[in-house]
Amino acid sequence: MSERVIAYGGQAVLEGVMMRGASMCAVAVRAPDGTIAVHTEPLGRVYRSRIARLPFLRGLIVLWDTLGLGMRAMTFSANVQAGPGQSIEAGPMALTLAVSVVLALGIFFLLPAGAGFLVERQTGWSAWWTNLVEGLMRLGLLLGYVWGVGFLPDIQRVFAYHGAEHKTINAFEAEASLDSDTIARFPREHARCGTAFLLTVVVLSVLLFGLLGPLPLLPRLIARLALIPVLVALAYEAMRLTARHARSPWVGPLLYPNLALQKLTTREPDAGMIEVALTAFRTMRTAEESAATPT
User: Fold this and answer.
1) Which of 22, 75, 92, 286 is the most core-located residue (most Cβ within 10 A)?
2) Would you put residue 186 in left (φ > 0), alpha (ψ -120 to 50) or beta?
3) Residue 122 above 80 pLDDT?
4) How many of the other CB atoms lie within 10 Å of CB of 259?
5) Mind listing the pLDDT tens digit for each residue in 125-147?
């Protein structure tokens, strides 16, 4: 699998899909009147620099870039849904994202760490076992969250667009014909999905935090937060490696939990959703080709 193929990815937004390429990204959103609104923009210079190709550091850059792109894509989508004359500013969306990140860190990292500390104090178990309990709790919270929000009608539609995004990328990487009927036949799971990334982070957290040994509560909480960038970097490299060798008989079984989890975060899209995903992908590719053509 080439570096260029590995660079492609996407994200579902409200009634739409964002596709990210090697140098450009595009968002396609289904408007209330049934048309498809499109927005394109180049990726930041840092993302396209040599620094972004350095192992481990590139994972942090991609995460930061994805948060920014995701926020702008959601703002564009919200404005399309609001209709003419309505404007949703990026500021409130950024504040919402920041609050969401803080809550996620507290719920998925600090809460399990505190619970693991209590188990260690009450049972006298070794740090390795209590870190395992902490990791299992973190996994349970992740599974419970994605399972629970999947019952919300709006989230179900976002998950269906997520499936359309994956199907389109899978068809492209298989060098298949990029038409709606062909794309619909491809699986809605993908090895480089953000859901897979989260599960990889959870698994690696058990191994990494287990190396720290027993810690008092406050140093334990600080260590969990301080090591998040390390977890992100390791998880990103692990995903790149497994995606590159996805067809290997040794790597395939390692991907199964990641792909299975995507059963919760994707739904089968309808033809209209695939059309939106395909529009986003084609727009992104056209923008990249135009940017690469000398003027």
Assistant:
1) 75
2) beta
3) yes
4) 19
5) 888 888 889 999 999 999 999 99
Look at residues 11, 8, 2, 4 and name the one whose alpha carbon lies nearest to residue 195. Answer: 11
The neighbouring-strand residues paired with 141 are none
Distance CA 30, CA 93 (A): 20
Q: How far apart are CA 54 and CA 59, in angstroms?
A: 9
Question: Within 10 A of 281 (CB to CB), how many other CB atoms are there?
Answer: 24
Least confident of 86-95, 113-122, 164-173, 221-230: 86-95
Q: And the tokens for 200?
A: 């990889």
Q: What is the DSSP letter of 1?
A: -
Q: Is 123 exposed, middle or buried (0-12, 13-18, 19+ CB in 10 A)?
A: exposed
State pTM to two decimals.
0.88
Q: How many helices (H) and strands (E) does the chain have?
A: 12, 4
Burial class (CB in 10 A: 0-12, 13-18, 19+), 94: middle
Q: Are 235 and 193 in contact (CB under 8 A)?
A: no
Map residue 196 onto helix, strand or coil: helix
Cβ neighbourhood burial of 100 (10 Å; 0-12, 13-18, 19+): exposed
Structure tokens at 26: 């595009």
Q: Residue 6 pLDDT more than 60?
A: no
Average pLDDT, the chain: 87
Contact criterion met (CB below 8 Å) for 169 and 10: yes
Q: For 251-277, what is each residue's pLDDT tens digit?
A: 778 788 888 999 999 999 999 999 999
Burial of 220 (0-12, 13-18, 19+ CB in 10 A): buried
Q: Where along the chain do its domains lie?
A: 3-292
Paired with 18 in beta bridges are 11, 27
How many beta carbons lie within 10 A of that of residue 216, not counting itself? Answer: 8
